[in-house]
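Data availability (excerpt). All sequences and predicted token strings are deposited with the supplementary files. A representative entry, Protein-glutamate methylesterase/protein-glutamine glutaminase, is shown inline so that the format can be inspected without opening the archive.
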Amino acid sequence: MSIALTSVLTSNAVRQDPLRVMVVDDSVVIRGLISRWIGSEPDMMVAASLRTGLDAVNQLERINPDVAVLDIEMPELDGISALPRLLAKKRNLIIIMASTLTRRNAEISFKALSLGASDYIPKPESTREASAAEIFHHDLIQKIRSLGAKVRRPAPASPSLAPSSTPAFERSREFSLRPQPAPVAQPQLIRRAFSTHAPRALLIGSSTGGPQALMTLVADIGPVIDRFPVLITQHMPPTFTTILAEHLARSSHRPAHEAIDGEIVRAGTIYLAPGGRHMRVVRHGAEVAIALDDGPPVNFCKPAVDPLFTSAIDVWQSGILALVLTGMGSDGMRGGKDIVTAGGSVIAQDEATSVVWGMPGAAANAGICAAVLPLNQIAPKLVRLFSGDRS
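Structure token line:
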């Protein structure tokens, strides 16, 4: 039997084994709702439905889940206290923090990411609102499926580059340090040459795993931020983007804030798309301005990356360098194609250091990237490119 056929059969076998999901929430309504959603998916099952973090810690070995959906506010032992105890018992457990949209819970969710949580999801204020419940349903199932798939398989090494050892991505790095199976031939990704035109703006798109990646990245691209506009769309709800902007300011030691409709874009500042609104850029006389809109979701996201990427072409033409970081889905790929067609360049984060290789994988597999790099190699590359390097 050929190696390629063996790989296909193994992959199919893995897919037939449903993900075991542990739901931990003190609300019987939320537990029931999430459990019904999970139970209706063919590739996942409810391994347990528990009321407190203490129950989860005490029963973890017996339940042996692949993924835990962990509420923040619970009696006996809350989510943020249960998190390190769960990971101490099972290091590769995927934990998705769930919380309502408050400033306090947003801050706790960011702390949870630093402690090893894989992702977060905002719970709607009321499940009676059909649209809010549907968004929660869609996002939760996608996060469970995407993150759960990664824990089931070893992260592939980059074809020619070593995986990152960046501290903020220790959990991703953990996958790459495990014993690897015999290598399977991978299709060669098409690489484009970098644009011969000097980049005049850095645009970044990210989703799942993005906050950690962004904070690592901006800490090392000070020379770029000082001289060029930096605009970021991270898939994230309101309040969370406020907190993320504050974290980016601390990591970069430069001003960072949620973009304001109509404000002039200048070098030296990081502009972040606010949760719940798409961010575009437009010409404002001889200057460039932010344009926010409340239009429908794009690629199931709001804010979405594609509107930013596409709008920038009218402003900077071939002088765009776009970066697609870790995240689910394919947002950024279509806008990246437009940027390349206009003469700009696209870089994607590699699979080994991505929490989810959806967005960067879509860009890489579309053949629009000039480079696919581990996280710890992206900042040095950006600094060189914005300093005049064209390769």
